[in-house]
Design goal:
mainly alpha
Length: 413
């Protein structure tokens, strides 16, 4: 079988597993299991905690001892068992533990999936920069397909979403073992534990602009999971006034416009970075978050449907311009020796610390605006929009950066 097609299947399944539950489980936890905002937030927060150390630890294992494709396979098989178990549990404490262990084996697979793809493409003589993005796009397609499937089958508020995720994880786990071998690189120099854990990248904090950048990466990272955690429950709460509307009946389909928008905005990043530079691109992202939350606050599935759709479209810009441009900026500013560590540090600040605190605090905000079980979503979304606006005002003042269009073109080629 054509190697590109095999990698497309691997990337598709990697994100299909996640898309089956990431967007819809919030609605299931709120409406079926009656968890509080803080409880739902903390279940999403498990991904933040796991992102702090697991990708680095399993990266070391794949770098030193076990083939990367095998580590990937073992993680997914463990995940399949945990997700299946999660689909049978209704108590918060137990579900929290299972989802925490699942995050510990799933979060590292995102990086491992890239590593396996890179190694195989390189060994087969492909150009990674040119040939990987069209393969990776199928990951996002997998995510969207999973969301649509769960929605159209009516499983958004059912534990069946976890069951589907579990089956696909098992399939990918077995499939990973059939991939071409990706043995640990035989290097003369043994990397120290400090550098393997991404800690040698902390020297970047000595540069003021990098310190400010990473700080804002963390503060913005707080916004990353908020709409994932609460978007589905928010749409569901419209069922009193708009029971027959598309947005209530098919909240996942509506929310999936966000992911589609993401695939389109990824393609515009090289242009925007060259033209405007990282400072403006990050600013565009911050204000896109203001609109993302603000439009949620004023939209509804009836006459305000267009506002919700606009919010979904803006999300692609909010997410990509921060996540991918930020990663490219780190790549450009970091010394070539600490490249991987620097990316690890960026992940740690955004998807680790940022997302963890973001989901916890946003859960508190949701509970604060919940009176007698009724959530005041307008106030909830406006408080998130206000937070993003505050970042947008402070960021350009404290982040000093001169854009040089030529520098962005010769990122370590």
């Amino acid at each position: 079988m054509n190697i590109r097609l095999r990698l497309v299947i691997m990337n598709f399944l990697e994100f299909f597993i996640w898309g089956s539950w990431l967007i819809s489980i919030g609605g299931y936890l709120f409406n079926e299991l009656h968890f509080s905002g803080v409880q739902v937030g903390s279940i999403y927060g498990t991904m933040g905690i796991a992102s702090l150390f697991m990708p680095a630890l399993l990266g070391i294992v794949a770098d030193r001892w076990i083939n990367a494709e095998r580590v990937l396979g073992l993680c997914h098989i463990a995940g399949a068992i945990l997700l299946f178990w999660a689909s049978t549990v209704t108590s918060f404490k137990m579900l929290y533990l299972i989802m925490f262990f699942n995050a510990m084996v799933f979060m590292p697979t995102i990086a491992l999936n890239n590593t396996v793809s890179y190694i195989i493409l390189e060994n087969k003589g492909f150009n990674i920069v040119k040939d990987f993005p069209p393969i990776r796009v199928w990951g996002t397609v997998g995510f969207i397909v999973a969301m649509w499937m769960v929605d159209l089958c009516g499983w958004t508020k059912s534990p069946l979403q976890l069951y589907i995720s579990s089956v696909s994880a098992l399939v990918l786990g077995i499939y990973s073992f059939t991939m071409p071998k990706c043995p640990p690189a035989k290097t003369k120099e043994k990397k120290s534990l400090i550098s393997s854990l991404g800690l040698d990248a902390f020297v970047l904090f000595k540069k003021r602009k990098m310190l400010v950048f990473f700080l804002f990466a963390m503060l913005l990272g707080a916004a990353l999971q908020i709409t994932n955690a609460f978007g589905s429950a928010f749409m569901d709460d419209f069922k009193t006034g708009y029971a027959d509307s598309f947005g209530v009946k098919h909240s996942n389909l509506l929310i999936s416009i966000s992911q589609m928008s993401e695939t389109l905005f990824i393609l515009t990043i090289p242009f925007f970075l060259r033209k405007f530079g990282i400072k403006r691109v990050m600013l565009i992202s911050i204000f896109a978050w203001v609109f993302r939350f603000g439009l949620f606050a004023v939209g509804n599935p009836g006459s305000g449907l267009i506002l919700l759709i606009l919010s979904m479209i803006v999300y692609g810009m909010a997410f990509d311009f921060f996540n991918i441009s930020g990663s490219l900026f780190v790549e450009k500013e970091a010394d070539i020796k600490i490249r991987a560590s620097a990316q690890g540090l960026f992940m740690l600040m955004t998807n680790g610390l940022g997302a963890f605190f973001g989901t916890l605090i946003s859960g508190e905000v949701v509970d604060h605006f919940t009176i007698n079980g009724v959530k005041n979503w307008t106030s909830i979304w406006f408080s998130f929009a206000g937070y993003a606006l505050l970042l947008g005002i402070i960021f350009p003042i404290v982040f000093k950066y001169k854009h040089d269009p030529k520098a962005m073109e010769n990122i370590h080629h």
